[in-house]
Each structure stands twice: as C-alpha cells, then as structure tokens.
C-alpha cells in the first residue's frame, strides 16, 4: 500500500463495482485511502468478496439501475449509509440483449433497461451528486479521458467534490 493517501477520509460511490473495471476502481480507491461505496445489482457474493478484499473498509449498497427510481434509490441508500459522499464514478453498464425477431414488448423492455442503466442513471446520479456536493460546500468537476481522446460519450463519468476556494 502507498504511503501517500490522497483519498484519505473521502467516500467514493462506484456504480457497477463488482465488474472488472469497477472492481479495479474500488481496489485503487481503497489503496489510496478512500472509503468506497460498492454498488451492485444482484451479485451480493462478489460484492462481499470485494469488500473482504479491501479489509471491510467500504460500504455495500444494492440497487437496480434499470428500475425507474433505481438511481435515486442508490443515491439515497449511499447517502444514508455514509453521510457525505465525496466522489461519484458512474461505471455500471449493460447491453441490450434482444433480437429483431423478438416480441415487441421484450424488445422494448430490453432497450428501456439499456437506456436507464447507460444513460438515465448516470445523468440522475450526476444531478444528485452535484446537488449534494454544493450542499457540502463543494464544487463538481467531471472528467473523462476517453471523451477528450475520442470526442464521444465516455463509458465512465467521474464527478468529484472539492472545497470552494475563497477569491
């Protein structure tokens, strides 16, 4: 573990924490002294194993971002668990698995879930994060190396709070 802990005492909400990229983010946040909030949808076993991998220095929060109020439920559960949240990493993502030949309702449900998880939930979480950051004398910044390189919507959006500085 590094002796420099830039995230010491900071809480970081990571959506999709149990997947490959999410897991790596959680491990790095913990290594840098942060308190990761591990979001998972259904695989509690993987979430528990990841929490154990960081010696229990994190918080588990279950939410289904494909549900209508999934992002709101996630944010509120995370905030109720830890109080102040310092950063948000929107990492969760799915891919619609439907075919042209499928029933229209099945097709529509798959795409609705895809849009909720990949578009609506990150937007809703960013909105809640910005309001939360402002209420805690912070300011929001959004970073995305992929967007700067490719000029496209990034798979990961990160919002971080920082204290407001006096002029």
From TrEMBL:
Q: Which UniProt keywords apply?
A: Oxidoreductase
Superkingdom of this entry's organism? Bacteria
Gene3D superfamilies in UniProt: NAD(P)-binding Rossmann-like Domain
Q: What class of enzyme is it?
A: oxidoreductase
What InterPro entries does the record point to?
NAD(P)-bd_dom_sf, SDR_fam
**EC code(s) of this entry:** 1.1.1.-
Task: Extract one GO molecular function annotation from the record.
Answer: oxidoreductase activity
Family stated for the protein in its record: Belongs to the short-chain dehydrogenases/reductases (SDR) family.
For this entry, the protein name equals SDR family NAD(P)-dependent oxidoreductase
Q: What species was this sequence derived from?
A: Yoonia phaeophyticola
**Upper lineage ranks?**
Bacteria, Pseudomonadati, Pseudomonadota, Alphaproteobacteria, Rhodobacterales
